[in-house]
Amino acid sequence: MERLSAWVVRNRWKVMVAWLVITVIGIVVAPTVSSRLVSGVHVNGAAYTADAQIAARYGGATSDPGVLVLGLPAGETVSGPAAAAQLHAVDAAIAKAEPGMRLVSYAATGAQALVGHGGTSTVVIAYPPNANDDMSTDQIDAITRAAKAAAPALRVDGTSLRALDAGNTTGGGNSTVTGELIIGALGALVVLAWVFGSLLAALPLLMALISVLTMQLLIYALTYVMPSSSPINPSVQFIVALLGLGLSIDYSLLVVTRWREERAAGRDNAQAVHEALKRAGHSVWFSGMVASLGLFALILVPNSLVRGIGVAGLFIPSSATLVALTLLPAVLSKIGPRLDWPRRRASSGASRFWTGWAKLVIRYRVLAAVVGLGILGTLAGVAATINISLPTTSSLATSGTYTDGLHELEADGFPAGTLTTVPVYVPHADDAASVASALSSLPTLHGVVAPSGDTWRQDGSAMLFAMPDSEVGTSQGGTALADIQRTVPHGVLVGGEEALNLAVTRSSYGAFPLLCTVVALMTFLLLARGLKSIVLSAKAVLLNALSVAASYGLLVLVFQHGLGMQALWGARSYGAIDRFAPVLIFGFLFGISMDYEVFILSRVREGYERTGSTRQGILEGISHTGRLVTSAALILFFALASLSTANDITVREIAAGLAAGVLLDAVVVRMLLLPALVSLFGPLNWWMPAWGARLLRIPPDTPQPHEERAPRPQPIGDAG
Hints:
Elements: H1 2-10, H2 12-29, H3 46-58, E1 66-71, H4 81-97, E2 102-104, H5 106-109, E3 121-127, H6 137-150, E4 155-160, H7 161-165, H8 177-196, H9 202-225, H10 235-264, H11 269-296, H12 304-313, H13 315-339, H14 352-363, H15 365-383, H16 393-396, H17 401-411, E5 422-426, H18 432-440, E6 445-449, E7 457-458, E8 461-468, H19 480-487, E9 493-494, H20 497-510, H21 512-531, H22 534-560, H23 565-569, H24 581-611, H25 614-643, H26 649-681, H27 690-696
Antiparallel strand pairs: 1-3, 1-4, 2-3, 5-8, 5-9, 6-8, 7-8
């Protein structure tokens, strides 16, 4: 770090110009990144193969359909001539209003599975024209209007899973990276202004902006090198932008705070920059490496969305680290003192409040450990009830036109499973009738439709549509999908969005134990080498695992059981947790929360090495980093909380879970459990056996300071 700081200060103009060029390129490229991203999830398996075949010939038939419920006037049935004319008119009007829309209707097929109670109603199942498209709320509204205009005598209601998921609103807006980035940045600026009380508050924010633009530039480059089987998903842009904002500010905050301390201690500006990089720079580099590991390990999960996030996530901490260790010290060496104005806060890193807090925790360390572990243990117990599946329609539906459509669907005798109708690809059209007959005998299906005509007969193949009694992919989904897969003959492919979702879930959680093991082991080894302690590293990994489990518990309380859902998002409980949320939260939170661990323990170790006292090390570590860690947690919280406003349920749950987890980790784990347990362990904190030092290639542990040496081992409760 000393050589790096000397080089940066000596070449500060070159460093600043280089970053200016990168920033300008990032500004130019950033608006085009989204056009390079690919929706959907790629995963090896029968469901993905089926969807690929269906999409190639039948466009958007792999997605969950939109459903129109058509009620006939009193006294009419679908078999009557007047009804037939109106139903044909509806099909024609939809085709005109939404060219290319693919329909499965009674008017075109005569299938009894599409007829409601008493023959007085029917449904039209609609799919978007193109592959990888979903039936948007705008399309549902458009075909509903077209049907009403074509057949005014009919009662027409439209609904779909996606429409219900969107909150039963019409024409809802979409979240944007820019809007959420601005919200997160404003929240961060408030916290930074409170921390510094000077123009320095803007410096970490500027570093974060440059980091995020660099990350967007790297994502753009990744889209050209990632294989077609693992494209970068649009959700990556959200995650990189908001996490990048938080991490970049965290790292800059650490360096600037240490620089300010060194200035207050009487060093000139150049010396302060060198000392800040020597001390805080090492923590930033180490934290960035550990966080990168946690994110990059997501590539172990065998599906394209998680792997894409893992590869892109590698650049989040690394870009933030590079900016904090090069551009930031260059700027500080040039104009740092001028930015530290009007200095409404003292520059000293020691905090009277946090010193008092550390003394209180040390004094009541057993009670603090019990309380902290009790909170985490209780939440981890709640996490054991997690239901990883799609939310049921009853959980999504609250009020609005799409909910009315669902209620009319069920009132007319159609199951809610109609919204998760399963597409079946028959390679040889001549086999379609026999396959449909076999599927019709399944008790878990409401019915099977075998449409004819060019729309559903392409290249010698045919499509069938199986309407399950229960919603596939939910906790109440039953065995309908498995029954279909078991019944169809060899070569007939069962696809659809829910079949793919279940395959993705199985692939994700099949690899989850390996992901946890690799991340925990590598983190332990890195920490053991960096902290020169076996005990502290093991404690950090175990507490991190417990912290992640507690975050899952908060996720379950909010999204599965609905605690605070109405107040925060105006929605009811989903009754389930999104399939991607636990995996991604683990990857992000395990790596990111190690930042705080490294920030605190590095300072504790520094104090211990100088004073020879574990107690003094804890006091120095907490008093100098307490405000820093809580401020950093608040900044990351604001960034993630702004991301939780996204309309995408996956992004919303991940962001909310991470936001809650970051605060929980910073307050309960780092500011309560960490000092309590370090105090309880006493001299054991610094244990590094000779074999461990050789394995990790670090110098043997230094002799114990005089006050912690004793003729026999001290009790574990001795704080040193």
